[in-house]
Amino acid sequence: MSRRPDDLMLRAAHFIAGTYVEDTPQLDVIAPSDGRVLTRIPVASAAMVDRAVAAARAALGTSGWAGLTPRDRTRALHRWADLIEAEADTLAHLEAVCSSRPVSHAATGDVVVTAEQIRFFAEFADKEGGDLVPTGAGSLGFIASEPYGVIGAIAPWNFPISMAGWKMAPALAAGNAVVLKPSEMTPFSALYMAELSVRAGIPAGLVNVVLGDGVTTGPAITGHPGIDKVSFTGSTRAGAAIMEHVARTGIKPMTLELGGKSPMVVFDDADLDLTADCLERGILPNAGQFCVAGSRIIVQRGIADALAERLAARFAVHRPAATWADQPGFCPIISETQLARIDGIVQAAVAEGARLVTGGARFDHPGSFYRPTLIRDVTAASPAVTQEIFGPVATFQTFDTEDEAMELAAHPTYGLCAGLFTRDLSRALRLTRRLQAGTVWVNRYGRSRDHILPTGGWKASGLGKDLGREAYTANRRTKSVLIDI
Predict the structure, then answer these.
(1) Which of 23, 183, 226, 414 has its CA 20 to 30 A from that of 303?
(2) Which band of pLDDT confidence, cut at 50, 70 and 90, is reported for residue 6?
C-alpha cells in the first residue's frame, strides 16, 4: 500500500555513535512530485563533523572491527542486508518521498540491489588479503593489506539508497568506519540504513550520517584530518572542488565518480527494435538523472529517420506521476532549479537552429516534471551536446563512416560510458577499443546485477572505481614488508 508523505516519520537529525543527534534545522527538504516542504534538516558544522569522526575512531578502537575474524565482519554485513530487505517498504517510501525514485521501483529495485551489493562486498572480507612475493633466498617479502581507518563519503541525490550502499558496503567490509553525508535533498533513507546497521549488530559508531550541504558540511568532511580517504559521487565541477580542497588541507586518497555525456553509437546493421528499447532505457529512467545516461545518440545516416521516428513515439507516451503513487509514472526532476537549467539548455539549442523532434517543455502537471525530449540537427558545439544536462534530453546526430562515428563519440571532457549497437562482432571488438570510456556496453545499455564489474570514468568523469573487486581494494592500503632470514 502506498503511503503518502504525511504518513511518514521523517527523521531530521544526524546519526552519530548509534543515536540520533538533534541540531538546528536550516534547510527545507522539498518533494519534487508536488513542491511541498516535507521538513527542515540541520547543516552539520565542522564541530558536528568532528563529533562524527571522533565517534568513528572510537568505534574502530573499542570494537576491534578491523581486526575481527573476517568472517565475523561478513556475517554482520549479511545481517544488515537481511534487515534492509525486510524493511524494503519503509526504505522505499523514505526514498520516494523526497527523490525522483517511484516507490515501487525503489522497493523492488534499488533496495533489493543495495542488499545484494552489501552481500557481494561482505564476501570479500575473508577472500582478499596480502601477497607473498618473490625475493632473494635470504629474505621473506610480503605485501600486507590493511584498512584506511575512517572513510568520508558524500553521496548524491539521484539514487540515494544505492549510492549510500556503494559507499558504505565496501568500506565496512574492508574494516573501516564511515562518516557519510547524503544529499541534503534526499537524506531519509540513508539515516534509516544507518539505524538498521546498528540493529544488525554492526558496532555503533562505525556508520555515522551527518546531514548538511556542500558549502559547510562537505568541506568539513573532505578536509578533516581524521578522515583517511574520501569517496564522492556527483558532478565533475564538485569533484574538482573536492580535489582542490583535499590538496590544500592534507593529501589523502579519493574515489570520484563524476559526470558523463555518454554516446550511444548505432550502425545500420543494428536490430532497430532492440536498439530503440536500449536507447529509451539509456536516457529516460529516473528522468535522465543518472550519470551514465546515454544522452548523445549517434546514428548511421541510412537508418536515422526510422530510428528517430521509433524513439519519438516511445518518448511521447510517458506520463508523470507522484513518486508515492500506486502506479509509477514518469519521474520528476529533483528541483525547480534543475528543471529550469534543463529547459534553458534545450531552448538555447533550438535558438541555434536545432530541431525538436518531441518534448522540449515541462509537463502540465503539479511538481517538477519535464517531457522526454529528442533534439536533431545540433552542432558539435551546442551546449546540448557538450554539457551534462542531467535530464530526459537526448541529442541525435548522424554519421556515414566508422571514423566519423568515433569522432562524434569522443568528448573533450567526459569519458564515463558508451553504447555500441551492431551485429558485426569484428566491428564491436574493434570499436570497444576506440571508444574513450570506462565502460562500454554492446547491444545493451546500462549496468547489470553482475556486481563484479567495476564502474568508473576516464578523463573528467572520475578517478578510481566503484563496484567490483576494485571498490573493495580501494578501501584498503598496502604495506610492503621485507624480513631478512
Answers:
(1) 414
(2) confident
Rama region for 416: left / alpha / beta (φ>0; ψ in -120 to 50; rest): alpha
Would you place residue 2 in the very low, low, confident or very high pLDDT band (cuts 50, 70, 90)? low
Which cell numbers hold the place of 343? Answer: 529547459
pLDDT at 156 over 60: yes
Residue 437 pLDDT > 70, yes or no? yes
Does 1 have pLDDT greater than 70? no
Residue 128 and residue 470 in contact, taking contact as beta carbons nearer than 8 Å: no
Q: Are strands 417-421 and 263-266 parallel, antiparallel or unpaired?
A: parallel
291 is catalytic: yes
Report the alpha-carbon distance of residue 292 to residue 281 in Å, rounded. 11
**Domain spans of the chain, in order of start:** 5-258+462-484, 263-451
- C-alpha cell of 386? 557538450
pLDDT at 266: 98
Catalytic residue (one of 98, 278, 291, 417): 291
Helix axes 70-86 and 88-98, enclosed angle (nearest 10)? 70
Marked catalytic residue, from 388, 417, 459, 465 = 388
Indicate which residue of 87, 95, 167, 181 is catalytic: 181
Model pLDDT, residue 129:
85
Query: In terms of CATH, what superfamily is 263-451?
Result: Aldehyde Dehydrogenase; Chain A, domain 2 (3.40.309.10)
417 has catalytic annotation: no
Q: Which CATH number fits the domain 5-258+462-484, given the four candidates 3.30.230.10, 3.40.630.10, 3.40.605.10, 3.30.9.10?
A: 3.40.605.10
Active site residue 388: yes
Select which of 98, 257, 261, 417 is catalytic. Answer: 257
* Residue 264, beta-bridge partner list: 297, 419
Active-site residue 95, yes or no?
no
What's the pLDDT at 3? 73
Global pTM value:
0.96
Residue 143: what pLDDT?
96
Whether the CB-CB separation of 124 and 151 falls below 8 Å is answered with no
- For residue 238, give the 3-state DSSP assignment: helix
Torsion of CA 389, 183, 292, 313, to 10 degrees: -60
Q: In whole angstroms, what separates CA 132 from the centre of its chain?
A: 35
Q: What is the full DSSP assignment across 372-429?
A: -EEEES--TT-HHHHS---SSEEEEEEESSHHHHHHHH--SSEESEEEEE-S-HHHHH
